[in-house]
Amino acid sequence: MGRAHGWSLARQLFALQAAIVGIVLTGLAVATYWQLQETERAATAEEMLGIAHTLAASPEVLAALDDPDPALALQPLAERVRLDTGTDFVVVMTPQGIRYSHPTPAEIGRTFVGTIGPAAAGETEFTETYTGTLGPSVRAVVPVLDGGRVVALVSVGRSITAVAQDLQRQVPLVLGAAAVALLLAAAGSWLVSRWLRRSTHDLGPAELSRMYEYYDAVLHAVREGLLLLDREGRVQLVNDEARRLLALPGEVHGRRVDEIGLPAVLGDALADGGPRDDEIHLTADRIVVVSQGAARWAGSHLGTVVTLRDHTELRELVSELQTVRGFADSLHAQAHEAANQLHTVISLIELGRAEEALEYATAELTVSQHLTDAVVDGIAVPELAALVVGKAAAAGERGVELSVDEGTRVPAGVADPRDLVTIVGNLLDNAVDAAQDAPAPRWVRFGAGIADGAVELRVRDSGPGVPAEDVERAFERGFSTKVSSAGHDGLGRGLGLALVRRAAQRHGGSVRLAGPAEFTVRLPLVRA
């Protein structure tokens, strides 16, 4: 996918973070300045209050107030205190606000400009910011008490300009702290941007959105099932076809693949993360071909990719093809056998032994007709009847006698004919293979009957049977007592009995090993 014009997501995020950090730090700096300003004014007011209290309690002030002209003694005292404390004015006045002292001598004797009511009433903690003769100032006004009586007032103040100058000395500290915070935030944003750039491959938001939409549409549209697993075997993505093939319940994202309800063999196979190439596995009602490989990016192992293909229909077609091939082999065998019998009869007639020829032909016809009659009379499913006859002929060519028990009965409608062909065909094939490898006499018996509301299908043979230690594994995918010369037949060995069990379970039935060499399948009539 080509790069579109515009900034990448990482660059946009960095610019957005930078703008947000700048706005926040600017607001923080302004708020800090205002806070410092208020704090400085409060501290100045507290300082003025302390100086005023100290002066008001001075014995020199009380002594000067008893003089005929208090201003002569109070003006030098107030100026000395003003210079010593660095304040802008120290005013001693009468309770009515007539000044005894002032930094500007011309103001002595005039009325104080400010609020004196609280102090004249005896309040000792009054402060205010007020514009007086010397301009705006932070001031405190306290009473001078003599035996509890207010005899004078003292006001001490500092101009707002002086307070602002004190505040200005703290501005570089605030700006320095803001600059350090800005640098740290910028460095953090740059690191986040760099990490995001690597994670998003320097793509923009529109590209990421479009890529997600396209990839999601493609993943859910492909005909193959797809599972993405992380390094711990947890499901990260599952498309619609995989859900259908595996019959997955609800939400499985984030769960381990062997804990989402898959058959144990399939779940374990996917969880180990090893490479797999076209392995055959069975689900509840499907045959799936599983391939699995490692997912890597830039040399890093991300997890595994699992692809699933539906082999159910192909297997059914193969089974049907094998059945048709069996029929063809049966016809070929019967034709070959008929030709041999005909040659034998003709040769006996040519030799003048017509009676022996008639006896031979009658005996062969009786044997063949007995099997045909038993199948036609007892098996009401044409496909199954044809299968048994065909398997009997094919087994005869391999030196194995396949016979049908007396009283065999399979009613119509007990199960889908294809499932019956799958069940009986696989059991008969396994039985013929086992009997062929056993000592003579080599035989296979097929029987069926109705008992306890179910149809029982029985197949037994003269072979050695399933070993006792393998009884529990007999119906698992991959179990086989046969030795494959090819190693792999394209559809997988050990599927026969597993398919038999799946087909029986689809109709509410079951299959069991009744003896070392006898399998019994029960299919309920009620469900049918």
TrEMBL record:
Q: Which InterPro entries match?
A: HATPase_C_sf, HATPase_dom, His_kinase_dom, PAS, PAS-like_dom_sf, sCache_3, Sensor-like_sf, Sig_transdc_His_kin-like_C
Q: Where are the transmembrane segments?
A: 12-34, 173-192
Query: In this protein, which residues make up the domain named Histidine kinase?
Result: 312-527
Subcellular compartments: Cell membrane
SUPFAM superfamilies documented for this protein: ATPase domain of HSP90 chaperone/DNA topoisomerase II/histidine kinase, PYP-like sensor domain (PAS domain), Sensory domain-like
Cellular component terms (Gene Ontology): plasma membrane
What's one GO MF term for it? ATP binding
Q: What is its EC number?
A: 2.7.13.3
Please report the record's description of how this protein sits within the membrane.
Multi-pass membrane protein
| Keywords in alphabetical order | ATP-binding, Cell membrane, Kinase, Membrane, Nucleotide-binding, Phosphoprotein, Transferase, Transmembrane, Transmembrane helix, Two-component regulatory system
Main localisation, per the record? Answer: membrane
- Reaction(s) this enzyme catalyzes, per UniProt: ATP + protein L-histidine = ADP + protein N-phospho-L-histidine
Looking at the record's lineage, which domain of life comes first?
A: Bacteria
Q: What is this protein called?
A: histidine kinase
**Lineage, highest ranks first:** Bacteria, Bacillati, Actinomycetota, Actinomycetes, Pseudonocardiales
